[in-house]
């Protein structure tokens, strides 16, 4: 039997199945390798859930510290500065000697006034004896009434001279005392503004200044709406904004974020609203035993401005800007980034209050915002935000 020339032996189809599996396996390996490489190239960001808890929302204001008492030291008498008896920037107590004016001219004036008192005193004693003698002689008729009147006139004149001499001595004594310039209050003194040997003019030459240290005041301005809110709160506490402000507790933070917040109380508000700005100046007082707070220092004060409510808190680092809007970046389970506009509130316990835009269930990027772009994919490392950012670090 002859085989047809076009005939070929039939190969078994069994070997095609392993070949297909092998091809699929190799294709899968290639795809996995590509996906792994792409995953390795994705930017890494840190994400977390916002902190959701009951808060009392604060109103934040900017202001500056001022000393409770401050005084400019000037001389009451003229003369050349003779001594300086303090160290620049030192703490001084009330009554400490600070400056001494050349005392020699005032000592001479004092001695002259004292001698005039002695003369007037002698004249007064003599005229008194003359008057007493005249009165005795008048009883027996041995002296005229006119002579007695002359003696009485001389006595009254001597009394007036004595009063004038005593007043001059008091003035000379005061001038002598004023040559020693003493601290009128306790506090921290500034540097000397006049050197020894310079002529000091009374009530005009500024020598130095002293400010009290503890406690210290903080002044800031509030608008009418917030003033009414605080005034109602103060009234409920049995006071008024002008008289003690109801003792409302406040917190102030300085420029150094590493420095702990300082706690104090509102204690005063001015008695009128400024027509030009529509604001009222308010004062809070803070203890300052260690002297960290200084007059003129800038600070941000937080005043309770709401009832307790559930709030959403995020770190400031998680908030970005899109022109005039504030946004946070959300990331889903697949690592896809989207932008979410939010309305921010004040800082509280190291976080920023989100008044609108978040419910607290979202996953937000808290670190690595520079790598996040809406519509792109990122590699996410989850962390847990502590209830208060000021007291704990991010926990892995």
Describe this structure in words.
This protein is α+β, with helices and mostly antiparallel strands and 396 residues long. It folds into 4 domains: 44-54 and 309-382, conserved putative lor/sdh protein from methanococcus maripaludis s2 fold (Beta Barrel); 60-68 and 215-304, Elongation Factor Tu (Ef-tu), domain 3 (Beta Barrel); 75-101 and 180-211, Beta Barrel (OB fold (Dihydrolipoamide Acetyltransferase, E2P)); 104-178, Helix hairpin bin (Helix Hairpins, Orthogonal Bundle). 28% of the residues lie in helices and 33% in strands. The chain is built from 4 helices and 23 strands. It has helices at 16-41, 104-140, 145-178, 224-236, and strands spanning 44-48, 51-55, 58-67, 70-74, 79-84, 91-92, 97-101, 180-182, 187-189, 199-200, 206-211, 216-223, 249-254, 262-269, 279-286, 298-304, 309-314, 319-322, 325-331, 337-348, 351-356, 364-367, 379-382. The strands form 5 sheets. A 6-stranded antiparallel β-sheet has the order 2-17-21-20-19-18, with no helix packed on it. Strands 3-12-15-14-13-16 form a 6-stranded antiparallel beta barrel. The longest helix is centred in the N-terminal third of the chain and has 37 residues, at 104-140. The radius of gyration is 44 Å and the shape is elongated. The model is unreliable at 1-7, 11-17 and 391-396 (pLDDT under 50).
